[in-house]
Amino acid sequence: MKNKNSSSKKLFYISFLAFNAFCTSVLADQLQSIDPKLTQNTIIKSSSDQSNALESNAKMWGLTTNNFQHYLWLMKNSPSGNWYKNLDPPEVLALNTTNPEKMMQYAEVQARNMHSRVTQELLFNKIYSQAYRNLYPDEKPIMPLNQANQSDILKAGDRVWLFLGVNTPLGSFAYKNLLKNIQSTPNTVLDIYFVGKNVTKKNIEQWAADMSIPHQLVNKQITLNFGNDRFSSLTKGKPVNLPFVGIVHNNRFQPITLSSVL
Fold it and tell me: What beta strand segments (E) does 21-87 contain?
């Protein structure tokens, strides 16, 4: 009986070794069947696609690839990811540098981007109105929902509130165009509110000098104000891009798009 059990164990062990050798052989054949060049090409293609996507996104914002990579890093590894979720990449980069020259470079990039955007929006508004008049000459144009009730909204007695920083891209563009509306509409006032950390009276005075604001208009058709508290009250802490514009009519504030009053 003992010899019989011993023979059975030997037979099981031999069978196990044979099965193990068979599995190893099959696995080796499968591994050999994978083309190393194909695997390498797949990795290279994936890396190339990521590089192309990165380059494309950087170009879209007018940034270098390195700058855009730094923006992505900031949004993932710094408080900017929470503070500046709704800001454009050039703005985030500008707010994360202490170098005035670099800040100016990013500000110029953002200014070009915003100028292109606003110019395109104004062109579309003009063409849309023309197209509507051509199709329905006897009807008043119906504006898109995001622009409804904003055209011709400035009326006598209204106040325009413009919120910006002393270095806000498009700040001067917004001011100059809003001033035209103020001067062409009787009994209206442009209240400019300056937002940002450590804004001083000297900063505001320098901004006004840079804009060549006529002294006779200050505190009459134009007022210059510290705006952090009012801005926080209106936005309720939500991220809002500057410049931010609204009209006060009958003591009620109505936010509007900048393009609607240009």
Answer: none
